[in-house]
Design brief:
The chain is α+β, with helices and mostly antiparallel strands and 166 residues long. It has helices at residues 2-17, 21-43, 46-49, 68-86, 94-107, 148-151; strands at 55-56, 113-119, 130-137, 140-143, 153-159. It has six helices and five strands. It has a five-stranded antiparallel beta sheet with strand order 1-5-2-3-4. A hairpin with a 2-residue loop joins strand 3 and strand 4 (140-143). The relative contact order is 0.19.
Length: 166
């Protein structure tokens, strides 16, 4: 049993060594930010968290554009958050990921839009009111998965302090 775990750990270390260095450096930061966001969500009402997310644009579905470099950084943030969320012992669903993504976007100067949506028409869960949060930079979905606009109606949108729109 111990040999099997050692072999698995060795395989994971080999796979991690093939990741780009900027991603390896960003994963621990993302992990800490997801943990901080999960703690914040557990202890603070959303009205206290909302000002930290950026400018509130209401129910608009705005998508700030980014330069090629900014889009590359957005992809890097998305990969780091996805990886870190898999190994998070605390709550790491869409809301903490979106909050951590906002923090990383601000840190790395990536324009973003954080969307909060609701729906009663999610397949397999008809009649239930479901909420979802996702984060994008132009066409790059940073957190929350693809297809969120199709499944959820936007009820709030927060954008980076100085975004660029088409």
């Amino acid at each position: 049993m111990a040999v099997t775990r050692a072999v698995m750990l060795l395989g994971k270390l080999r796979a991690a060594s093939r990741l780009p260095l900027p991603l390896i450096a960003l994963i621990p930061v993302a992990w800490l930010l997801i943990g901080a966001a999960a703690t914040l969500v557990a202890v603070a009402p959303f009205r206290r968290i909302a000002p930290l997310l950026g400018r509130n644009m209401g129910a608009a579905a705005l998508a700030p554009i980014g330069s090629a470099k900014e889009l590359d950084r957005a992809v890097l943030i998305a990969r780091a958050i996805s990886f870190a969320a898999r190994y998070m012992p605390l709550r790491s669903d869409c809301l903490p990921q979106a909050i951590a993504g906002v923090a990383l976007c601000r840190l790395l100067r990536v324009p973003y839009a954080a969307y909060f949506g609701a729906s009663t028409f999610v397949p397999g869960r008809q009649g239930q009111l479901l909420a979802h949060a996702w984060l994008q930079c132009g066409p790059v979905v940073i957190t929350g998965g693809r297809g969120s606009f199709g499944a959820y109606g936007v009820v709030a949108c927060f954008v980076s302090p100085h975004p660029r729109y088409p």
